[in-house]
Specification:
Elements: E1 8-9, E2 15-17, H1 28-37, H2 41-55, H3 65-70, H4 73-85, H5 90-108, E3 111-112, E4 117-118, H6 145-153, H7 160-175, H8 179-183, E5 190-193, E6 196-202, E7 208-212, H9 215-227, H10 258-269, H11 278-291, H12 296-303, H13 308-322
Length: 332
Amino acid sequence: MEDNRVIVFNSENRLKKSILAIPPSTHFIRHFLNGKAKKSYATARNYETDIKQFFKVTWIEDITLDHIKAVTIFDVEDFIYEMMDKGLTSGTIHRKISSLSSLYMWLMKYQDNTMDITLIKYNPFSNMKDIMPTLNYVETEFLTEEEAEKILGTINDKTIVGLRNKIIFALALTTAVRKKEFINIKLKDITTKGGYDIINVIRKRDKHDFVKLQAPVRNLILEYIKLTERDMDNDADDYLFKGHNRNHKNKEKLDASSPNKIVTALCKKAGITKHIKVHSLRHSAITWVIMKGATLDKAKEFAAHESATTTARYIHSVDKLRNNAGDLIDIL
């Protein structure tokens, strides 16, 4: 029986033996990406783009373990400077370095004590703080309640597409759900808890949670389900939001790229010139509850933030507006 504990590549870069327990004919980085995709396909896709960009290959399968081992801190420095010269944002540069560091950290996990085998011993992407650009947190634009009402008022909710878009907009603004969370809602997730209408959602890191559903939004949802000729019981496993073509029912769930396009189009139609996307709606909802007096704990719970530090940034932004020293100046 073949010993499958050791990873070895021959001249044709084929995996002969592996302590990674990789399925036959699967490249080791592809195996890494497949694992990431189980949690988030979008994250896995970004990782693949970043890895291919650094190694300057068209296909992930062109990268060998020797290529991995040959990378030095000087190669990483050159990559960072190259991205800075191209004008990439600090956030993008940090994300790309994080993607590559994650790959190396994953490979470093695989060791065999009985035979003293390691795949790699060093992560050249882990000690770049001294040359990495400072992260600049660009304030996300948010809507006022008046602007939100204006946008909602322009939507024709007598059509399937219009009704769906209105629900997406209203749901994001009343629950602060993330895009990934609401596009994965199924009919069976719309339920009750303790006498309240709720929607079960899956948060980051596959954490199960629920959000309270306002009655007007729930009524719109029920109307949309009826209009798409579905039933809460018989179509329980159906995704709530569908992609639609010419207002006809489509069996596929809403594509992840569609919500931002929908929000942009709605803002343009209403004459709102702010740069608003789905995340801006979430940002708006969190900002509103803080402006209306929600405590840090309540706002954190509403936003489903893992850290109160993240929520505190919103409070700081609101305080800058509410208690602005410039308000003391009265010259007109």
